[in-house]
Amino acid sequence: MHDFERLADKVRNWGRWGERDQRGTLNLIGPEALLRGTQAVSAGKAFSLGLDFGSDGPQLNKSRFNPLLFVTDLFTPLNPARPNAMYSDDVITMPLQCATQWDALGHVHYNGRLYGGVEADAALSTKGTSHCGVEHLAKPGIVSRGILIDVARLYNVRRLPADHVISVEDLRRACDMAGIAPQPGDIACIRTGHISHFTVDADRAAFNGLQPGVGIAVAEWLYERQISAVASDNVAVETLNPEMLASDLPLPFHMLALREMGMPLGEMWNFEELAEDCAADGRYSFLLCAPPLAITHAFGSPVNPIALK
Amino acid sequence: MHDFERLADKVRNWGRWGERDQRGTLNLIGPEALLRGTQAVSAGKAFSLGLDFGSDGPQLNKSRFNPLLFVTDLFTPLNPARPNAMYSDDVITMPLQCATQWDALGHVHYNGRLYGGVEADAALSTKGTSHCGVEHLAKPGIVSRGILIDVARLYNVRRLPADHVISVEDLRRACDMAGIAPQPGDIACIRTGHISHFTVDADRAAFNGLQPGVGIAVAEWLYERQISAVASDNVAVETLNPEMLASDLPLPFHMLALREMGMPLGEMWNFEELAEDCAADGRYSFLLCAPPLAITHAFGSPVNPIALK
Amino acid sequence: MHDFERLADKVRNWGRWGERDQRGTLNLIGPEALLRGTQAVSAGKAFSLGLDFGSDGPQLNKSRFNPLLFVTDLFTPLNPARPNAMYSDDVITMPLQCATQWDALGHVHYNGRLYGGVEADAALSTKGTSHCGVEHLAKPGIVSRGILIDVARLYNVRRLPADHVISVEDLRRACDMAGIAPQPGDIACIRTGHISHFTVDADRAAFNGLQPGVGIAVAEWLYERQISAVASDNVAVETLNPEMLASDLPLPFHMLALREMGMPLGEMWNFEELAEDCAADGRYSFLLCAPPLAITHAFGSPVNPIALK
Amino acid sequence: MHDFERLADKVRNWGRWGERDQRGTLNLIGPEALLRGTQAVSAGKAFSLGLDFGSDGPQLNKSRFNPLLFVTDLFTPLNPARPNAMYSDDVITMPLQCATQWDALGHVHYNGRLYGGVEADAALSTKGTSHCGVEHLAKPGIVSRGILIDVARLYNVRRLPADHVISVEDLRRACDMAGIAPQPGDIACIRTGHISHFTVDADRAAFNGLQPGVGIAVAEWLYERQISAVASDNVAVETLNPEMLASDLPLPFHMLALREMGMPLGEMWNFEELAEDCAADGRYSFLLCAPPLAITHAFGSPVNPIALK
Question: What ipTM goes with this model?
Fold first, then answer.
């Protein structure tokens, strides 16, 4: 715990952008970061980093379930008197965290307080969160230069083993490998390769089980470099292992990021195609546009992140 | 009808990008268009063009309803033995067409055929559409140079009257006013100002009622300029008036765009803030990143479009 | 408050049927009560006392909404190779309290405790209630002799005015008028006529607004007569008026019934047809079978109550 | 097929109760049948024949899923100014056929026609069925004398093997064993014991797989005895075996019952407790009250059937 408390105190951004701030480290994205992002676009190629949203999704249907699509109009005439022209409409029921997503800052808390020191009791209810809901991340969106930190490629593996805890040293070496120096406002995309358990092997149990990811020291590294957001291709960004899950403070990196730093977390992003391209042309930075939906008071949002190179 | 049929034959792109194409005019977006978009970014400012998704949304709750947010976990301990650290989760139930959206190509059809000539009977079911579902627009996303065609400002009004049918001449003059020449791959953002009935006046009846929008001749103009997609700040992009709705072919522009051209339609976008900025700095082009979610077989997707200048 | 506290102490059944009881006054229904019910059946006529569940329901779609029906299979071949034989399936999304319903004992509480003295904090969560969920009322169901206490007919009106507070004297006189003496285990059906605001006038605002219903003294009357459950044709069984709603303890009758007595409340039942029949043949008792669904941990259940005479 | 066509012609009730009839064999329930039911009640005992509706339900979550319960209000103060008195509310999303249910007459069809000869194309849509929706079975409900035809007990097994096709001879012998003579209007409850795969063994795969049930000849037996409805403790009432499922007309008993006879089918009922009681006291008839909810235009309804002895 000593380590966690030291880190928490170090990275806590409460009040840094005002008492009522609800955008956290997105405040670090200014014109320079955006322009750095557009300048990284040279080939004019776009990559979607999002999974599909459908019944074949990654959820095991135990607690969270995969999206349910309901067709509410099918072959419905636009003019009942003229059945020739028709439209179809649909409704979706889905957990906001069922596939590629952003976690809102209000998604987790400990010691009864959310990001900014706001009391969870005052903010959270069955209507969502009145403080730090995802709608605050949606305007003006999440766009900046993105950098791919490909830890799997650093280790020359298709995917890191389940017990690999990504260290600050891993990040440093992967940035060196990529020839990138993180800049203020950057969005860090950390690749573990773990997603292929789902996308290639269709092994949902493995995908949702113990897995590689960042350790808590990474929070300090992100803080020091003024990273604005971090996303990974696993379920929780941070590693999931038995000791951590049974500890006094499970998901400590979630707490450091969302609760202390006010840093949104992207989960279940798919970097496979992008990573191939970066390895091929040696360019590991890009414009990243990953806008959450402005779902009022929600704890997260599905997203289809786009990388432009 | 003579006019419609002539236009339909003119703009029909069936087979243009292969027999099995499901991306329609998004095929017109190549590296040049993307780079033209990034080059339009000079100030490093981002604008969200999306409405909120919540119970205060624009739907009248008659056929389509506003999103329902269900909180499925609230103050849930991450480790049941240690109630200190907690998370919250949610589920959404929403019509995919309830607020800012993209219509997928499969959303409408007439004469029993969808875009590409595919038989509606073969593609459409209560599971969605097996042809031209929105997932095909999600990869690699919808990104290009965007141009704001501000017809309201052209007429020096806050918003066009309900019976204003936007003509090709309106578009030409608005582009001249903006100093933009549409380029292949561009995404046309046509502003009517109509959205302020909802966003400012909270008048959902007016917002969903008869309204200004494009006339069918605009389809030809978009086709000739190789526009890749079109979005507007009204409910249907095209004008809604009694004669059209009671005709043999209601929503004819929908048919020309989605069914003939394969051109995705963006609806209920909010250009108010962007339009102020464009009028202020005289720059009416930007990078537009508007990725739909890859919802398998769906007829549309919610979207939070981002404009970068 | 003095009155309420006196009544609360008087009618509190905590521990009466054991420490872990979750069925409350349904425990008062024994073989005699059931047989008394079947003996009341002489003509062999059945009456449904339930409203329809559909988009035309009584909800105003403000907080609670009317049911949403989604057809998930339509013309689906039972054998894909033989499209001749087909089936259709559906899914419903509905508030459990949207129309004719039973409130479960866990539906309300005050001073942090539910029926039986169980701490609300320990029982209630986003997964429902682990104490006194409606599933405990579903087995072996809610069946007994029912008695119609027609207060509207007593006053010779189609429906009581909104400010009518049903008194013990009203119940006594209505029972006399009906020639019934309440017996232990009986289910009391109290008619106000209020439902016709919805069923006849389609006036949802009036139906959901201020309304006639029982006053708190009725709780004592029900307790003394060992009534097993009470249902009414209004929204809350008890009267809804401005003073009560703005008081320290709104819905006091709910508290006395559900929390103190453990008495299930039936709401939005429709007695109009039954009441005509009772007035015509002078028989105001019947077998009442009103089984809630055993929805695990739920706060209530829709019901289609059946009266047999 | 020859056999099926002969049976279909034999049992077809189209027009028997008028051109526009939507209640089918429920029309066979008159006062005598109801009174016969109440007269079967001697001990004053009630049995619920319904399964629970919750996440532990019998569905495998492949096509149909188990109910999703969403708590929309939790510790919500009735008067925001006085947080002492609180309520909780919930919403359910569930397939109407996910557990103990009635199939509506409109649930299946073949040769393009539903019960009564109504064209499926004219009746069925994504809004449900405008002909023979379950709401027509809900008023005045489904109540009559019920008879338990315990085929499992006849064979002295806990449950019939998966390939057992219940014959007319089985029914005759089981009625003899029970000492019951079926009467017009009776509801036949046919016990296979199959449900214990789920309720005892939690083996959902076995419960939903190949299973014992009635053969098509039973339709004629039910027709001749003027049975008003039939329910069983398996998934489909009829047997499910590979040949039938791969045939030209899968679920032929469904077609004979729902489409030809207009006989509602009850599925996934639980007779275990009732069957023990009937074996103990030798009384196999009872009052059966099994009211579907009046869900407008729906293809079925959940139900909690109650048997009174």
Answer: 0.97
